[in-house]
Model the fold of this input.
Amino acid sequence: MFYMPELFSHEEQQKLKPFFSNTHKGIFVLKNLPEVIRGTLFSRYSRSPKSLRRLFLDEFQPELPELQAVTEQPTLTPEAVAKAEAFYDRVLGGFGDDSVAELGGAHLALEGISQIAAKVVEDSRLGLSPLEKSTRYVEFDKKDENGNYRYYRDPKIMSSPFADEYVKTMNLLFDTYSGLIPKLNEHIVAKNKLEDFQFTLPTTKQVIKYSDITDEKTRKDASIAYKAAIRAKVCDTLRYLLPASTLTNVGTYGNGRAYEYLLQKLYSHHIAETRGLAREIHDELNQTIPSFVKRATELPHLKERYQRPGLVKKDLDYLVKLSDHDPEGQEKIIGGILFELGHCDYQKGIERAKKMTEEEKRKLLTSYIGTRSSRRAKPGRAFENASIAFDVNADFGAYRDLQRHRILTQERQLISCNQGYETPDELVEAGLDKPYHEAMTKARELYDKLKDKMPYEAQYAVPLGYKLSYYMRFNLREAFHLIELRTGKQGHPSYRRICIQMFHDLKKVYPLIAEHMNFVDLNDYKFARADSELKTAMKTNK
Done:
């Protein structure tokens, strides 16, 4: 190592130890400090010739005497934190450096929010990392302590003449969902006996029937995986009945800048739930990173944008439609590669690419991408020079999964019942589709009564099985990630169909690129989670 870290006296080391992971290396992490102090320290660090630990000793400890001589978990007084917040405000006011707010963050739990509110939160592309309660691993049939199903009761709906019908219809959807769980489970188990169930052993990649497994430990793990795969299949099938009002939990970590924009968006939104959520989030963040969210307020331009609902088209006849691509996309990618190699400037690289033969292009792409051992081995940034766009018309449940991809541009129309709904094959095969159709029809009837008077609130009545229109535009580097991940065996059948079609369409316009998407899985699977569950069982039951 050529860098020699600064040396500290024994006394200084004692002052630093509670707040830094080490006192003698050039690489370290901060600990036991409020987020506002961490962010403020880094903001000062960027404008000082001093090392971070020296800066802390020279400029922060004199201002915050409560931090001195602490040898265990420090306890900071409100006065100490207030000083740090004042310092942050001076930095932001003096330099206008909004990026300072990216240096501190918070873990935030949002419990009991609707699918509508969850989508607004998760729509943030950068700075927030959300995780949501899964409809695959959790059954949403539990009632609260008052005996009510867990769905959002919007005040505008509940004060309208449709309140009773709303409650009755939501209860019907949840009753149907709950009632079909044991029936569908019984049907799937009857048709897929454990003894005949096939697994791919993670160690040998051998496909083997349960009855042929001789190792007792593996048999036990396979039995656990079988039950988990059946459960996932049931939940995947029945989630189509869950309405957008279904309450969920979302955990997220974000930096101060991302939370500020999230609050502005929520404050400016069109439904009561999101505006109320903004106030609650703001109250909680004021207890941890108050300076970072101090400026968050309703923004007129956002409020105006959200107040213009459009008409949702009916009866679209496609699942996925290639809507736009760059005809020179492959040449632009190759031009970027030639630039990186130092052969020429970017524009000349594109011109050279146009004169290359298909084999020359293929050879250069293969060399640039290299050997990809897994889908996690991403191609280089040259692939960001071309993009592709798709219109999608698929069930809202699939959108919930695809929305989590954030390095792209996507926009959706209002959730509605105007475009029909999907009917899972498993329900038809089990002879359980009649109650499903009855519940979905009732939801449509309620939606039709709500949509003209309250188009935004009407979304709460729409089950996840109804189709939603949205578009997605992403560069070809993101295409590798999105399509390879979402065609994976363990994925939900609904979004697998979408991304398999995306791959076929992409292959038509970017054939040389598609050749290198080696981890796209075009196969059809009956039980998506079986092998993954077996791998998990073998790891956790040692």
User: Anything to note?
Assistant: The two ends are 41 Å apart (CA to CA).
